[in-house]
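Action item from last week, closing it out:
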Amino acid sequence: MGFLASSASICYFQVSGNLDAQKKFTELPEQLSTEGFRSIENSAEELATGWVEMTDYDNGEFDTAQCWYDHFLCFTLRQDRRRIPAALLKRQISRLSAQFLAEKPDLKYVPKAEKEQIRDRARSQLLVKTLPSPSFYDVVWDTERQLLRFCSLGQTMIDSFQGLFHQTFPGLRLQLLHPFARAEKILPESQQERLQQVNQASTDSVLEQIEANRWLGNDFLLWLFYRTLNSDSRYQVSASGPLLEKQPFTAFLDNRLVLVGGGQEGVQKIVVAGPQDHYLEVKTALTQGKQIEEATLHFQHDEDNAWKLTLKGERFQFGSYRTPMIKPESSPDDDPQAEAVAAFLTKLAATEEGEQMFDSLLRDFLELRLGDGWQDLQGAIQTWLNE
């Protein structure tokens, strides 16, 4: 789903590199146009990938007025792919093979070299007759904070997006905002040294940072699970964003948790979904050494507005991130362009509020995790799990 949908899955990146504060408003759209999407509908090509405007998925020629919302650059990754069903390809190969043998009565079997040619010819013939299937993935780039949101969690699409981004903007680099990088971003300077002391990665490699510091996501979700069942779930805003500092909000886990751990037969995964009274199944799995890898989080700062997301603990990606549906007031006389801008800014504000509450919650956890009282809290959690 797109960014403006009622819910969207979001992968977060930090952008690094030199970006001219004034020239960016013309240069970035021009660079997007150079890698704009080009249709393969009237060709036999199997795959096409490129950028299109978020407001017009058929337009790869970027209009500055259409892709900028204040300092936010918005665009979409479009990928068209032709897919040939295996059974249809097999049938076409059989037809061409039978035709080949009919023209060569002295042969009983199609030679190996000819088989490969027939297969390629069958694919080409079917590709011409097959319409490409399009898919769209929105991008919202905050060029002041250099924070980029990509609306997909599929690793193949993330890799494709990163490759095309670096090809389009050769002077810029993307870094996945993984759990440890997010922790560095939200903690004050006074706690950075302590954070580095618990960094279990030996290099700055993103993959190593993710794998070596899996404890961060696991401990965070375990702490929030414990807090959900043993506290009033009340917190205060402490991270920067649109909400006021110290504004109260509630946060808790509910509905769905995924636990992963090793067993005699290899890695085991347990999914607990639906309303639970005491989460006995989850507590049992935790005492057996399994870790919470994924959970549904809820945020609320007033009675009318609620946020919901599925947190991927390994990379801190937001799955099915749902924000309050606040529609700006409009009338038949309003300018459609102005309405589109208002809708985007309203959605963006709600998105940022949810992110701010998440960062505040994570900051509360990190202050405990890096403090002297963490071992005592671990003991209390373990005692509670064994009850």
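Closing note: The mean pLDDT is 92.
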